[in-house]
């Protein structure tokens, strides 16, 4: 259900709407959704994920795994993202060494993409192949079929998160099968994990601008037996 609004609705009103509508898309005609409002809404709606689409002033509310489930597995979910982050940077550095390019020079990456690759595809070694597309580069392990997609438009920062691609990384990583089962192949569940990690400051914005583009907070890790407010 899509609803156009002039200002953010009261949480009680949203709960009433959710009793009759499983999914809601709010379109704000003027202004933007305040981050504190979104956080409060997410904390109130424990069986949903609340996601903002910043550039078009939209708020999406859809069913997801419970906040309780995310918090109970928060350390392991953080470790999933930590592994993605390390693997992404490792593969980009391997690509730089293999093809002798400066990752901080976008023209050299573009040259590899357009002139030194076959239809923007290639192979780094006997284990990894790559495919450039749009603003990203996908890597696939030839042996294990592990997959990850890396955004290559942020200088030397390659850890930008995308719910769909992060889920695919977890699904194709053997050591993360337990977490993949919890996520149940649903990108909404992955987005819920991202939102809860962000609320608890384990994810941070890529820039000072409120773009919603997130990376792992490398200066804050979950501690075992931490009690989180629901």
From TrEMBL:
This is DUF6896 domain-containing protein. Residues 77-207 form the DUF6896 domain. Pfam families: DUF6896. It comes from Tenacibaculum tangerinum.
């Amino acid at each position: 259900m899509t609803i156009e609004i002039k200002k953010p609705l009261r949480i009680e009103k949203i709960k009433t709407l959710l009793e009759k509508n499983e999914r809601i898309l709010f379109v704000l005609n003027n202004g933007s959704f305040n981050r504190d409002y979104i956080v409060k809404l997410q904390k109130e709606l424990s069986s949903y994920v609340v996601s903002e689409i910043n550039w078009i002033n939209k708020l999406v509310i859809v069913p997801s795994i419970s906040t309780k489930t995310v918090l109970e597995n928060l350390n392991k979910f953080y470790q999933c993202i930590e592994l993605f982050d390390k693997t992404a940077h490792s593969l980009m550095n391997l690509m730089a060494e293999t093809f002798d390019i400066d990752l901080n020079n976008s023209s050299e990456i573009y040259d590899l993409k357009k002139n030194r690759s076959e239809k923007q595809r290639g192979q780094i070694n006997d284990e990894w192949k790559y495919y450039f597309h749009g603003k990203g580069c996908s890597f696939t392990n030839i042996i294990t079929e592990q997959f990850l997609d890396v955004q290559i438009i942020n200088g030397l920062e390659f850890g930008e998160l995308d719910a769909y691609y992060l889920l695919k990384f977890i699904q194709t990583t053997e050591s993360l099968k337990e977490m993949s089962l919890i996520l149940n192949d649903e990108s909404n569940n992955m987005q819920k994990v991202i939102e809860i990690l962000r609320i608890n400051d384990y994810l941070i914005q890529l820039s000072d601008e409120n773009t919603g583009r997130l990376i792992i907070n490398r200066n804050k890790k979950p501690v075992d037996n931490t009690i989180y407010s629901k």
